[in-house]
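Give me structure tokens for this 577-residue protein.
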Amino acid sequence: VGVPRCGASLHELNKALRIELNANANCVWQIQRNANQTIRLIFSYFKFAPSSSCKTESIKIYDGPSTNSPVLGQVCNDTDAVPVLQSSSDSLTFLITTNSVAFTRNFFVFYYYFSPETKVENCGGQLTGPNGTFTSPNYPKPYPEFTYCVWHIRTAKNSKINLRFQDFFLELDQNCQFDFTAVYDGPTTNTGLIGKVCGRRAQPTFESSSNVMTVVLSTDYANSYRGFSAQYTSAPLPGPVEPNIFLTCSSDSMKIVLSTSYLASLGYNETHLQLNDPSCHPVVTNSVIFSFPLASCGTTKKDEDQSITYTNVISLSATGGIITRQKSIQIIAKCKMENNSTVEAIYITKNNIIQNTTSVGRYNVSISFYDSDSFSKPVLQSPYYVDLNQTLFAQVSLHSSDPNLLVFVDTCIASPQPDFGSLTYDLIRSGCNKDDTVVTYPPLEHYGRFKFNAFRFLQSFPSVYLQCDILICDSNNTNSRCTKGCISRQKRAISSYKWKTNTVVGPIRLKRDLRSADHSESLTKADAEETPNLQQYSFYTLSFVVLISNIIIVVAVILKYHIKCQAGYGYQKIQSS
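Here you go.
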């Protein structure tokens, strides 16, 4: 076994290399020989600097005589396999790069030339059915040298595989660098390593998480033993554990509730959880509850087409120790504000598998009248009695803990009916003032403000209701619809908003209607007190009836003439007396 410090040119038919490197290494090994054979390269042991990434520290393997050849593969700190690579010709190159961390890296690699057309009997294959057996080549006699066998086991869907080595005897080595058996949870040898074993073991056992398992036997050039005899069986997978997680979104906050039993089924408890901001801790009862304002605990906000999305992530990972066999899990919680609703989504990621659940909520938006342009004292009475041409101050309010939102009053219409039927009047349309008394104030964070003069609808409609379409945008987006103001019909399509809703306020009534109602009430009371002695006043009563009849005839003539002169509804401004 050679111990080259940094790179070498290798020409032997086979060779094992024990490599030690320190910080800032950049070393190249080239394997080349004039032979019509293929190279198999095996990294049976590697130890990089702790916490290093593939970007800063790795082994890159090239299918050819230099680092300009095509990349065949890469090995780094998070490689979850025993890397075995095979060239397409008689040359191969690998480059080891290390970062600046002071640490001694250790690698064990060996290679050999072989002819792919040469087959070894009883070496690998496809195994199907609910159970079965297989052995190493020549078992119970010593296995051959330079052997690489792969068995693919597949059972029925919705089952798992239990593998037991009834007899096991390979070359003994502390790190299983020379001869070894590797077992993978899945159909390939690239990832999902369950374990690597060697030496003389008492019936090692392995279990898959699905109906597919892969078993590898790799041997070098010396010290062969009898190998192994293995048996596998299958068993039904337990029913899926329902993700017992609930997400609630509001204008102010996000609330995530996880059941402790669900966490336990994943092999975790509340101590393994953290949000994007680890300083935000849950409340633990029978459930684990994260409740926090939208703009806190590391929540991110993203502008999307017609919506604003708030996202936070709960990470579940093992704590303490050096290694773990638990799979890391992420619970991605999303509150999506769009089209008059909040779409709440939870995504649970586990080995790139995503599950999700959704529910619906909404932004909290209201509209109120105020007594002045200071917008400090809201009008609480309903109906709101006003004088004709009185200036009315209206404010739309967004109730949200996110400070980076902007409210824009896009459209406001008035109607004498609360259902806003066919009879309506535009005050504001697409941000443009349609009534000449309307004045809109510049957008101010969570408030949209405007004022207009009171009016009434012609004919006998005592009330006026107001309905406004509200747009909500990200205040950091200087090109949002909320910053565009009045948009003409031709240009309307070019500006987009992020969220839209409408809100209603009313009714507004004239003060004269209030006075008329009070007067009518007093007349009724007086009439009730004067009902005795009707016979005494019969003459006066008859005279009064005759007078009223004449008045009704005159009014009918006037109305007939008025209707001929004016058809349909209209809008009239009347100066207050």
